[in-house]
Each structure stands twice: as structure tokens, then as C-alpha cells.
Specification:
Layout lengths: L1 H13 L7 H10 L5 H20 L1
Length: about 55
């Protein structure tokens, strides 16, 4: 019994996991972001744009 469990664990360790598709990658990227990440990036780009306009005046 113990030997069978050991062999099962070994075979799972050696088997390859399936490749990630595009949806999986999107989920992983989204999981690592905070609730306001997109809004903050947009705000930063808006501020940079305003600074550029102000420096041209």
C-alpha cells in the first residue's frame, strides 16, 4: 500500500502539467493586480500628459 502511494506520487511529480492557454495567463496577470491598478495607470498617464502640456506653455 505504501509503495503504491509512493509510486503514484513519483509519477505525478514526473508528469508534465498542461500548457497554459491565453485565458489562464490573463487570469494569472489579473490575480496579481490590485483593485485599482488600471485606474492608477490611467491617472498616471493623464498626469504625465498634463505636465507635458504645462511645460509647453
Amino acid at each position: 500500500m505504501v509503495r503504491e502511494l509512493f509510486e503514484m506520487a513519483r509519477s505525478k511529480k514526473n508528469s508534465c502539467s498542461p500548457a497554459l492557454d491565453e485565458n489562464d495567463i490573463v487570469v494569472l496577470k489579473r490575480y496579481g493586480q490590485g483593485a485599482y491598478t488600471e485606474q492608477l495607470k490611467q491617472l498616471e498617464s493623464d498626469i504625465e500628459e498634463c505636465v507635458k502640456k504645462a511645460s509647453l506653455m
